[in-house]
């Protein structure tokens, strides 16, 4: 079932299936900011990633001597959440462990996804509560896909990324969906990154983030469209679009977790980039997005 939150600037539609954003539209122009999930290209809008981010080697891991099979980005994106709270400008979805989740992930948990509107800013907040009697190990992240407006003669090559603060960051390449750890390098993210289909021929661009309040902007000089993603305290961000199948969209993905390194031994307790949460404790994280249509003033 779909639910709506809105104000006088934007209208957001979110499904209880996967707690996934379906649509973000300008209240003034009706312009759609979110990718509309063409199944022939990429059939999702903005999946929520939990309890892993990325892919495990062979889609499996071991924990305390037992092997579990878990697909890319975990199970939350395919799960039905319950609605815990819903107001005009905010909604909170809740997912609890159950018999099916414990077959692939042994921990007891409460996982909440909250969306909150403030003017043209949409917050996506995560809360994980460990209901187990042992330390819980998990990753979490967002995967929003943004439309590139090309209704007035623009093409994908007219758009670019702008990252703030303007510093050099470590980039971690992927090889066969695992982190190619020994080939990570310093990337010139202190300059603009031009968008093209070939940018993603080796899969996602993954950057390590240092400190809080990093921002990734998706822009063009052809009109006033831009989207800003504030990653807050996320240690990683991925930038991705499907390849070789392509279309006019791109994802900006704040992550508190990451794919297996190519030298991973498969033991969950050794997995790089995971969060470790003690029994009864709560983990909180999140990111924010602002949307500016092709006719908005640039801010």
Automatic annotation (TrEMBL):
Highest taxon above the source species: Bacteria
GO biological process: one example: carbohydrate metabolic process
GO molecular function per UniProt: carbohydrate binding; isomerase activity
Cited Gene3D superfamilies: 2.70.98.10
Alphabetical list of Pfam families matching this protein: Aldose_epim
Protein name: Galactose mutarotase related enzyme
Species of provenance: Lactobacillus acidophilus (strain ATCC 700396 / NCK56 / N2 / NCFM)
